[in-house]
């Protein structure tokens, strides 16, 4: 259900962006997102929700692309980066330590917008 | 028709919510009012926790509550009996409070009372371990409750919530003798997900742990007001 609210926020951000561009004179082709794997967002659900939400609106013909950003942590002892796994409690495989620092995976971003002028 | 243009904006999807959350925080700071965002799954004991806490705090601090609920005002009605300012926020279909809702709640609170006289604002979020973790409301600290009847694995299954929390209250510990529950495993899972979080075991029946929780709140208020 939270994808509905994420979509609402995404559309509001798009409205805000379009206000500066003269919305009537542009066609948005792609909205390119970066979604971290350590967030509450399921990419497919977000795409489906977005597609349903923008039907008949100025964003009707736009497409969402999602670049998944891996969940990556850093070992607090040896500084090695690693991909934390739920199965071993997110611990670092090198020193078996708890997840202190997250390097990436918390992203919820509009990276770029591809558009054409009419 | 012109060629396509790519506008690299690198903007947080939730930036409008974050922006409003910042505004809320500035307001709380101007009021010298510490704000806690209380989150958990439904039935972990948030409202009962608040009932006891508000009564205990009343000798030392002035409190108010913003009470998030999807469809009813039942929890708000319970807390209003304690004669403290309570503003219900009915979220409708939304399964979490967002910064705009809290801003609206704060405006209603301002009509009830001058927030300058308050020390602490407790915001009870909608019962849900997923969405509330991503939507900031302008809080100074996040408190997550986890009742032992929910299972030891919940910090691993809902890691964002427990990673984001500053304090994790393990609730309903009076039930420990009756359940096949390994509290050390739960604590280990909490440490794995969030090694920096404070953890307090608490029971609303025996009141165990409430002294530590009150101390945690008092310390935060005193530090905030310095």
Explain what the structure shows.
The complex is a heterodimer of chains A (118) and B (226). Chain A has 118 residues and is α+β, with helices and mostly antiparallel strands. Chain A has two helices and six strands; from the N terminus they run αβαβββββ. Chain A has helices at residues 2-19, 43-53; strands at 26-36, 63-69, 72-74, 81-82, 101-104, 108-117. The mean pLDDT of chain A is 93. Chain B is of the alpha/beta class. Helix content of chain B is 38%, strand content 21%. In chain B, strand 7 (167-171), helix 7 (183-193) and strand 8 form a beta-alpha-beta unit. In chain B, helix 1 runs parallel beside helix 4 (99-112). Chain B is globular and about 70 Å long. The termini of chain B are far apart. Strand 6 of chain A pairs antiparallel with strand 1 (5-12) of chain B.
Task: Quickly list its features.
heterodimer, A: 118 residues, alpha+beta, three-stranded mixed β-sheet, three-stranded antiparallel β-sheet, 2 helices, 6 strands, B: 226 residues, alpha/beta, seven-stranded parallel β-sheet, globular
């Amino acid at each position: 259900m939270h994808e509905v609210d994420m979509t609402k926020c995404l559309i509001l951000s798009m409205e805000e962006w379009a206000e500066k561009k003269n919305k009537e004179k542009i066609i948005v082709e792609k909205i390119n997102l970066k979604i971290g794997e350590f967030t509450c967002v399921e990419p497919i659900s977000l795409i489906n929700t977005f597609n349903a939400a923008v039907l008949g609106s100025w964003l009707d013909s736009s497409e969402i692309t999602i670049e998944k950003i891996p969940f990556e942590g850093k070992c607090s002892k040896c500084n090695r980066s690693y991909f934390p796994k739920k199965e071993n409690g997110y611990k670092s495989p090198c020193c078996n330590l708890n997840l202190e620092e997250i390097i990436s995976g918390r992203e919820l971003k509009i990276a770029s917008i591809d558009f054409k002028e009419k | 028709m012109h060629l396509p243009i790519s506008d690299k904006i690198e903007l947080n999807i939730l930036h409008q919510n974050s922006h409003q959350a910042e505004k809320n925080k500035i307001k709380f700071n101007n009021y010298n009012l510490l704000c806690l965002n209380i989150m958990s799954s439904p039935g972990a004991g948030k409202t009962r926790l608040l009932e006891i806490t508000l009564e205990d705090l009343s000798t030392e601090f002035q409190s108010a509550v913003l009470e998030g609920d999807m469809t009813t005002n039942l929890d708000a009605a319970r807390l209003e009996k304690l004669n403290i300012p309570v503003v219900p926020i009915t979220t409708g279909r939304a399964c979490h409070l967002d910064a705009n809702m809290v801003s609206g709640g704060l405006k209603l609170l301002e009509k009830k009372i001058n927030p300058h006289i308050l020390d602490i604002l407790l915001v009870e979020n909608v019962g849900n371990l997923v969405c509330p973790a991503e939507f900031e409301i302008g809080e100074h600290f996040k408190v997550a409750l986890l009742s032992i009847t929910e299972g030891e694995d919940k910090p691993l299954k809902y890691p964002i919530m427990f990673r984001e929390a500053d304090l994790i209250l393990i609730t309903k510990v009076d039930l420990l003798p009756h359940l096949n529950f390994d509290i050390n495993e739960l604590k280990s899972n909490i440490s794995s997900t969030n090694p920096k979080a404070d953890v307090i075991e608490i029971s609303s029946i025996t009141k165990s742990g409430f002294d530590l929780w009150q101390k945690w709140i008092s310390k935060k208020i005193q530090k905030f007001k310095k």
